[in-house]
Amino acid sequence: MLSENGSVALHGLQFVTKERWEAMTQNRERFLKNESENPCDFSAINQAVAESWIRSRNLGIDPFQTRIDKSLNSKELEGLLDKNKLLINITQKLFNSFKSLVDSSGYSLYLFDKNGVLLLFTGAFPQNVDYDRLMPGKIFNESTVGTCSHVLSMRYRCPIQIIGPEQYSIYYQNMIGSSAPIQDEKGELIATLVLNQELINPVLDSNYQKLCIHTLGLIIAMAEAIQVQIELEKNNQYVSSVNKDLRLAYDTLEATLDCIDEGIVNVDQTGQVIRMNQQGLQIFNLKPGQIAGKNIRDFLDANSSLMEFVAKGEKSSVEEMICTNKDEQSYLIEIHPVLTQNTQLTGAILRFNHVKKINAMVNSRSGAIAKYKFADIIGESKAIKEVIELGNRFAGLQETILLSGESGTGKEIFAQAIHNRRCSQGPFIAVNCSALPRDLIECELFGYEGGSFTGADRSGRPGKIELANGGTLFLDEIGDMPLELQPVLLRVIENKQVIRIGGRNYKKVDFNIIAATNKDLKKIMEEDLFRKDLFFRLSVLMLKLPALRDRENDVEILSNYFIKKYCQKVGRKTPLIHAEAREKILSYSWPGNVRQLENAMIYAINVSKDNTITLNCLPDNILSEKTGKFNGKDSTEEENILLSIASWEKTAIQVALMRANDNILVAAEMLEISKATLYRKIKEYNIKV
Ligand SMILES: Nc1ncnc2c1ncn2[C@@H]1O[C@H](COP(=O)(O)OP(=O)(O)OP(=O)(O)O)[C@@H](O)[C@H]1O
Fold this sequence. Notes:
The protein is an alpha/beta fold. It folds into four domains: 18-233, Beta-Lactamase (2-Layer Sandwich), CATH 3.30.450; 263-348, Beta-Lactamase; 366-544, Rossmann fold (3-Layer(aba) Sandwich); 550-684, Helicase, Ruva Protein, domain 3. The chain is 43% helix and 16% strand. Mean pLDDT is 85; it is low at 1-13 and 627-643.
């Protein structure tokens, strides 16, 4: 039925002889007279053609019909043209370049969609055909026009040429139709291309028949060209849409990286910089065009271990000094290896965070902030005003300050106020030298490198001195600093550099020191428990805080202040103070100073009824004091008072824990002591939590 090369060509690409032509004409006449339904009876007609004749007739197609009425409506046509836009554009260009050839030779070119709907037409207008007939949207298939070349080409998905008598319609009896299918990359039919040429006399001329074979070749070549072009365009569209997506993804990534508040640097295995974000450029003091040829090693210390970590190909972090032509700054660098799909290391993404920034973050999270300012220090007495004035002056100097005074006189709040005058933006790191176990104080102060001892953090930890960089290190209860650590501390203060336990490198640190003691340091020095050199280094400026008993009317001012502050905090109405209670508060000796006064007020508020603090609301130790002032008592009296302070303190802690539902942090805040002190006291007083 089909020729060997898959096409139904002009009679198997054989020339039509005179006898064959006559036989074809006779076969057609027999068909029209309805003499046979068996395709085999039409021996001169290609069997595929004969079968199509029979189907066309069975579909009721009149071979002599003069009109083709079937066409798409305008909306359907619009949709179809839109759907086939690419095909039509490509074919139109091809038709344009063949237009003059086609016009001059009396040929016509057609493009039909896969269902035979006319999409494009160019060339000679066939005789006897209405112009309307060749408008896009007309449907030309077996059920509208019967057998013709593109109908068979669509059916058999191969190039086809059929000649005059083989055509079903009377219109095409003087035509040779050459048709080729256009398929997509999956082999699905998308359209057919047709070239119709008029039969000329003598049709049996061998040159003419050769020409006809070439027109079939031409239409096959055109269909293939369209097919290739469609694929190319689709690929181009795909590539350009992928390119667009990639560009968008890249731009988004760039913008994202640039709004990250840390330096992000991509390096290869040798440390060569590939790219860095805006923050990275700032860290390295570079402009965007200056990255090329830069190696990360150019900015590192000779002892740097960064590239050793990169070579390991594992996620890790390291602290390094970055030296630029502007300055030297310490950064914590997180290393994220970059691996290929087969896990080959190609480089790393390095995330740079300024150590000062991390420390500030850690400090603000861990509560290492100073809240008190000089304005928050309450008191009208001459004694307190003098120290406030002196403290203010000292704050303007960068020397170390030693605060002394009894417990609870406000040494820490003075330290905070001085810090806030000097460098409020920096961290305020308080270390209570008496609260830390002896074997931990060294780690706490100096920090340690990863793996320097069993149980140490893998990535190491900075000590309080490093954390205080750019701010203040407040060494409370300095008299309890272990003797063996005192020379190390002195060295740090003098050299302003620190080395972590197990560390290789010294780190520069810049911080102010404020030390505090409630002990007589001179006496401890005489006992050889405190080094003179450290004492002199710490006590460049000395500030002695007055005891409450030496602060004239401050007890009244402070008690009113604490009552108001506490009531505001817990949302209670401020209670009245009964005259008797007021008298007791004012006459009491307050050996525990301001802290004791504050806690006594909190206690009184909590036990008060009817919004009045009566005498009975005051803690027992206050009520049980017989004499007015705490002056010149003998030692047993003093011990008794201290004993009662302890019992009062225990009660205050129990009340705070109860109110805080045993939450240590909340209770410590209520009592305004550190967590460590609260733990120590809980242990000391054997309080069950
Ligand atoms: N002048 C003041 N104005 C307001 N509050 C004060 C004042 N003095 C002390 N306080 C309060 O007293 C309590 C004790 O203060 P602080 O901890 O500073 O004393 P300290 O001398 O450091 O005590 P210690 O020697 O026991 O560590 C805190 O709760 C603080 O709020």
